[in-house]
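Sequence, structure tokens passed on for absentees:
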Amino acid sequence: MEKIALNDNNLHNQKRRLFLKKIINFIFLIAGLLFAVTGLIFLKPKKPKNRPLNFFEISEDKIPREGVKKVDIAVEEGKLIKIFLVNKNNSIIAISPVCTHLGCFVNFDRTVNEFICPCHGGRYDIEGKVIDGPPKNALHRLPIKMENGKIFIGIKL
């Protein structure tokens, strides 16, 4: 009789341990899901604001007669934005200086007529199209409009 009672007691202890393991696993599962959901909520990128396009006049002396010219545009009191103006075949193109790979600022090398990113060696032609390197997309072109013989560049602030 004593052996049967000990076996019943062992069986009862095993069932209790198994039940406790399942409860602990369930608690960790719930905690893990809560951490995952919380992480996704905080790490999810915010939707970009649909900012309006503001046009800024470019003075005639800033427009290149040919080739490329780096231009500062005063968008607010004390705030300048740099862009590149390109005159190719008497057509003006406004190009953002921000590399499409990781956001570094490109420079224009007049000796090879290319925009070059100093960070990872991305190279773009005079129109901003990718020639070589890690960037997959061309440099962003900014909208241009002409009114009364004046050039205006569109920038989202």
Remarks:
- The longest strand covers residues 67-76.
